Amino acid sequence: MRRSFILLSLCFIAVSACAQDNGRMQKIAQQMAERFTKADINGDGMLTREEAKAMPRVSSHFDEIDANHDGQVSLDEIRAYAVATRQSKSS
Questions:
Q1: Are 77 and 55 in contact (CB under 8 A)?
Q2: Does 66 score more than 50 pLDDT?
Q3: Model-level pTM?
């Protein structure tokens, strides 16, 4: 009985930690989208190298983020780069 209670408690802690992490990730994604929108001066949904200067991390990794090598980065490319970077750090 006590072992079951401990196991259940550990599961609850793990689920709670995942939920908090998910909420934190959603907040980060929202903040990134807001910064992207502010940096996108001409409102075309893409950042040129010049516009990317408003987002220093994007600017410093511009060529890595620009997956299709069109000289611009989209919010989707930034998200994909962030996910790939996070996954490579956790491996």
A1: no
A2: yes
A3: 0.73
